[in-house]
């Protein structure tokens, strides 16, 4: 053991000295090993630091209180809940009846002797320097010790009296306000002075203001209702502080009053499952949030890490070989002084160990520095504050060991090669006779065949995409193993080449030990890039084929969907001002109830909804109200037959206006591209225009059903009956053919709607543009709309816009850089190996440019071979993956047909080869590698002694 220790100690000292002597080569390998450690280490530190403990999460939610009591709006009915308060359900059997509804009394759930703090939230539109900003209004006495930790004060103080508010820093930045300014809410004349700024540590991007309880939400709600506008929807919870903590028995007692409790003590120390009625009596299962890594994700992660280590080994291996070749005289002296092959291997392996340990230390230290430096940026990006730098020593040690192991693995092959040289060959500089292994290509061929078989199985017989990925990775490893044999195959092309490329190719073939790793490194990088590029291009073609435009190309629509029609004229004018408008078509909606009722919120007080009364004969039998389960009431053959029925064709177009009923003029037809002169005539005659023939009744009219009782409507739907409501019948013209109306079902003028007894309200507009809106125009428009503070659904039809071009460009650049790096390393090794040949050429009178051109072609040969093999190896896994997805899509399509799950279209899963990417890799990258290598190589080498022969 003592001899072993001393021999390795000497080997490490020699390796450390050589690493310091050849700083350029050492820095190159150090950088290759350090970068992955830097990235993975920083990612680990950032991820762990961003994770919050249960205690930290509770503090951010409820401050220093012991519990938060909330009302789930179950009418005060007793309920069961989970220990953490996330899952709950009312006590009793509700399988065939709806859950109870209504508010409960929060005060009944507060235990005797407890202290409470009210916490209410709502929304309103506050006036800022830019206009109106939808803002969350929170009424909480934030200065109370119970609330400590919920809000973090950054400037000023929290409100202490009526008329004062504090605001989040994000709200102040968004509204260009500061502490000391005053704001008002739309609909309320009272002015509120900003006395402090704070942030929510778990949500830095929230626009929120804080006021004392009862000073903001109630006055705003009263003022809005006085103007017949929707009031403030607010929710209230109670923070509770009690001696001894809020126990599980207290939680169950509070549940009897229909309230849900999030208790600090219970969450930190949950009861046994047998003591949780929700699990034992209600039959619920404990909620598992997961959080761990699934087996499939672990396999993918291990595969990626393994391939990354292989890539680094293939890149760093030739660099260690360069060092061993340049130090062969020194290694020969080790052998001449009694050292055996194990000592020589130890010296070369120690080089990998020294660089690996240095990379681990440097990478870990840089990871700490990078994490600390980018922490503020990451907090802003993630939208939450970290509680500190969470360091997991074992994880960081494991990450650091990757560098050490990779360094040793990269030095194994050069170490074995160096130990096989005789002492005489090392001292005299002879290269000796090198024979490539015949076993490795055979193993590579077996691995390639086995990987292809696994990928084929995953494509044709299995639904697991992981098999395709694993088989492709194994096949790629097999191709890497066959690289020496494939390099020899390329050598046959040398007979048809000029002098310099012929010498470069024959030199590469003759010295496969240094050529093969570099070619394999290029192969691996290019294969991965080509595989991802092929998949991305294919997926882009699929998404392009599936894309359905929401409007005619270049058209714009705007819908104000918050029920406040006062902003509609300003919204229409803002679009008119900022865009190049050709035709403008203002549209209204049918209003059921009082002014200010929102679309799709028929259950609100005094509000209803509207729908088209489709004749029963025109309703798809699968979707008829009296059909409870189409899968049980129709056979598979009947369902497949009905899928072809025009009545059962699904229309995914959406207009954004309730029921697709548009109140507007003939300009709407122009914007939507409806070419039917009779339709304009019908509008002028006071008739409606129908875009769906199944909406028409037998007498040629269209029925508009006004639903005023939402509860009765829901009950009728659940019982399979027709929705109750008054039906307004309007004479209509059916547009000829099957035009695409982009979600519009019926169009009528305001006069026609008024004559039919329909109330209307402004909702938005449609526009056609003379030129497609630019990004700058849209940004200005969004800024103007933000100032209005309305909820505007804005659509600008630009056609399909994919991001595959950026992806393909990034992949091409990445593969190109790896190719240039690997080729440069191989060229450096070739120059170290062929120095004697270059001197011979110079001695026999070869032109000085031969050295330069030979170096360039040596680099180009490695790049060309790697790119060609990598392109071939990369296309296959992408094709296999797409075939697997095609098979899975077809199975889902057949299942949808059998189970009557809508009317799906036949799947389209194309396979597209990215020829531009391949062209750039096959032509441009090798050409650039050749030119760069030729430019950086000196034409004349220094004179030196010849090896003794």
Write up what this structure looks like.
Helices cover 51% and strands 14% of the residues. The strands form three sheets. Strands 1, 4, 5, 6, 7, 8, 9, 10, 11 and 12 form a ten-stranded mixed beta sheet that branches. A ten-stranded mixed beta sheet has the order 15-18-19-17-20-16-14-21-13-22. It has a two-stranded antiparallel sheet with strand order 2-3. Mean pLDDT is 80; it is low at 289-293 and 943-949. The radius of gyration is 37 Å and the shape is globular. 41% of the residues are buried. A hairpin with a 6-residue loop joins strand 2 (79-81) and strand 3. The protein is an alpha+beta fold and 949 residues long. The protein starts with a helix and ends in a 13-residue tail after the last helix. Helix 2 (23-50) crosses helix 11 (341-382).
Short description:
This protein is of the alpha+beta class and 949 residues long. The protein has 30 helices and 22 strands.
pLDDT averaged over residues: 80
**Span between N and C termini?**
40 Å
What integer value in Å does the Rg equal? Answer: 37 Å
Instruction: Tally the helices.
Output: 30
Structural class by secondary-structure content: alpha+beta
Topology (elements, then pairings):
Layout: H1 2-21, H2 23-50, H3 54-62, E1 67-70, E2 79-81, E3 88-90, E4 115-127, E5 132-140, E6 152-156, E7 164-168, H4 169-175, E8 182-184, E9 191-199, E10 208-211, H5 217-226, E11 235-241, H6 248-255, E12 260-263, H7 264-268, H8 277-280, H9 295-326, H10 328-336, H11 341-382, H12 393-420, H13 423-428, H14 439-460, H15 465-481, H16 483-490, H17 499-510, H18 512-546, E13 556-560, H19 568-578, E14 581-591, E15 609-613, H20 630-633, H21 636-643, E16 661-664, H22 667-672, H23 677-684, E17 688-690, E18 701-707, H24 710-718, E19 726-734, E20 746-748, H25 750-755, E21 759-769, H26 775-788, E22 792-796, H27 804-833, H28 835-843, H29 849-899, H30 915-936
Parallel strand pairs: 5-10, 7-9, 16-20, 17-19
Antiparallel strand pairs: 1-11, 1-12, 2-3, 4-5, 4-11, 6-9, 7-10, 8-9, 13-21, 13-22, 14-16, 14-21, 15-18, 17-20, 18-19
Helix pairs in contact: 1-11, 2-9, 2-11, 2-12, 9-12, 9-15, 9-18, 9-27, 11-12, 14-15, 14-29, 15-18, 15-29, 16-17, 16-18, 17-29, 18-27, 18-29, 19-26, 27-29, 27-30, 29-30
């Amino acid at each position: 053991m003592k001899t072993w220790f001393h021999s390795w100690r000497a080997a490490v000292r020699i390796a450390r000295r050589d690493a310091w002597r050849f700083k350029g080569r050492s820095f190159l390998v150090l950088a290759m090993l350090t970068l992955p450690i830097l990235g993975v280490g920083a990612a680990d530190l950032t991820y762990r630091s961003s994770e919050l403990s249960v205690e930290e999460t509770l503090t951010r939610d409820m401050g220093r209180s012991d519990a938060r009591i909330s009302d789930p709006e179950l009418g005060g009915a007793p309920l069961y809940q989970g220990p953490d308060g996330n899952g709950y359900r009312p006590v009793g059997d509700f399988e065939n009846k709806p859950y109870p509804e209504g508010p409960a009394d929060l005060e009944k759930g507060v235990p005797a002797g407890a202290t409470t703090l009210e916490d209410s939230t709502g929304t309103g539109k506050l006036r800022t320097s830019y206009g109106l900003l939808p803002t969350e209004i929170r009424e909480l006495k934030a200065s109370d010790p119970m609330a400590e930790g919920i809000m973090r004060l950054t400037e000023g103080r929290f409100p202490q009296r009526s008329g004062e508010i504090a605001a989040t820093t994000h709200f102040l930045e968004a509204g260009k306000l500061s502490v000391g300014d005053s704001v008002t809410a739309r609909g309320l004349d009272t002015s509120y002075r900003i006395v402090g700024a704070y942030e929510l540590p778990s949500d830095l991007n929230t626009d929120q203001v804080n006021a004392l309880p009862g000073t903001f939400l109630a006055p705003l709600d009263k003022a809005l209702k006085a103007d017949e506008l929707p009031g403030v929807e607010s929710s209230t919870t109670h923070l509770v502080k009690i001696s001894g903590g809020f126990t599980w028995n207290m939680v169950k007692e509070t549940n009897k009053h229909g309230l849900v409790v999030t208790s600090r003590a219970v969450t930190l120390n949950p009861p046994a499952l047998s003591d949780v009625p929700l699990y034992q009596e209600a039959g619920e299962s404990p909620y598992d949030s997961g959080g761990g890594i699934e087996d499939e994700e672990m396999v993918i992660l291990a595969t990626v890490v393994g391939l990354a280590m292989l890539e680094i080994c293939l890149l760093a291996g030739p660099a260690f070989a360069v060092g061993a070749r340049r130090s062969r005289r020194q290694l020969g002296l080790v052998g001449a002084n009694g050292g055996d092959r194990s000592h020589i291997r130890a010296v070369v392996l120690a080089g990998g160990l020294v660089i690996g340990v240095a990379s681990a230390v440097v990478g870990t230290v840089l990871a700490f520095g990078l994490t600390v430096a980018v922490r503020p940026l990451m907090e802003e990006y993630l939208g939450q504050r970290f509680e500190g730098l969470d360091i997991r020593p074992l994880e960081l040690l494991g990450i650091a060991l990757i560098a050490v192991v990779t360094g040793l693995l990269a030095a194994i092959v050069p170490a074995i090669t160096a130990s096989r040289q005789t002492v005489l060959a090392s001292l005299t500089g002879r290269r000796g006779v090198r024979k490539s292994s015949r076993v490795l290509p055979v193993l590579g061929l077996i691995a390639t065949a086995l990987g292809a078989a696994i990928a084929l199985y995953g494509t044709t017989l299995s639904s697991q995409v992981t098999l395709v990925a694993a088989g492709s990775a194994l096949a790629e490893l097999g191709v890497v193993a066959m690289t020496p044999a494939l390099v020899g195959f390329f050598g046959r092309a040398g007979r048809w080449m000029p002098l310099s490329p012929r010498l470069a190719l024959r030199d590469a073939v003759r010295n496969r030990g240094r050529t093969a790793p570099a070619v394999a490194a290029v192969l691996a990088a290019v294969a991965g890039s080509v595989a991802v590029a092929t998949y991305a291009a294919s997926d882009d073609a699929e998404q392009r084929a599936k894309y359905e435009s929401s409007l005619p190309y270049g058209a714009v629509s705007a819908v104000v969907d918050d029920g406040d029609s006062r902003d509609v004229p300003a919204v229409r004018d803002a679009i008119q001002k900022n865009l190049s408008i050709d035709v403008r078509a203002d549209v209204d909606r049918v209003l059921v109830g009082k002014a200010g009722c929102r679309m799709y919120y028929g259950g609100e007080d005094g509000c209803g909804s509207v729908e088209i009364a489709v004749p029963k004969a025109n309703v798809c039998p699968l979707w008829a109200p009296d059909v409870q389960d189409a899968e049980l009431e129709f056979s598979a053959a009947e369902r497949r037959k009905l899928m072809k029925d025009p009545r059962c064709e699904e229309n995914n177009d959406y207009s954004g206006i309730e029921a697709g009923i548009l109140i507007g003029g003939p300009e709407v037809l122009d914007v939507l591209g409806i070419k039917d002169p009779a339709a304009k005539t019908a509008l002028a005659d006071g008739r409606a225009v129908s875009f769906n023939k199944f909406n028409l009744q037998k007498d040629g009219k269209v029925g508009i059903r006004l639903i005023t009782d939402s509860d009765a409507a829901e009950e009728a739907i659940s019982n399979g009956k027709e929705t109750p409501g008054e039906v307004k019948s309007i004479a209509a013209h059916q547009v000829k053919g099957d035009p695409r109306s982009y979600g519009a079902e019926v169009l009528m003028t305001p006069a026609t709607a008024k004559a039919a007894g329909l109330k209307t309200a402004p909702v938005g507009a449609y526009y056609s543009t003379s030129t497609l809106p630019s990004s700058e125009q849209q940004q200005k428009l969004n800024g103007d709309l933000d100032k209005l503070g309305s909820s505007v659904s804005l659509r600008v039809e630009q056609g399909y816009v994919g991001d595959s071009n950026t992806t393909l460009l990034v992949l091409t650049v990445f593969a190109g850089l790896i190719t240039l790096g690997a080729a440069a390393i191989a060229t450096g090794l070739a120059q170290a190996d062929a120095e004697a040949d270059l001197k011979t050429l110079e001695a026999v009178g070869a032109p000085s440019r031969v050295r330069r051109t030979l170096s360039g072609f040596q680099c180009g040969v490695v790049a060309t071979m790697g790119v060609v093999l990598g392109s071939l190896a990369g296309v296959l896994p992408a094709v296999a993956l797409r075939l697997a997805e095609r098979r899975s899509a077809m199975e889902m399509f057949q299942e949808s047909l059998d189970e009557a799950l809508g009317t799906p279209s036949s799947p389209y899963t194309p396979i597209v080869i990215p020829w531009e990417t391949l062209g750039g890799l096959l032509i441009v990258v090798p050409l650039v590698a050749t030119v760069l290598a030729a430019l950086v190589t000196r034409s004349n080498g220094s004179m030196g002694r010849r090896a003794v022969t």
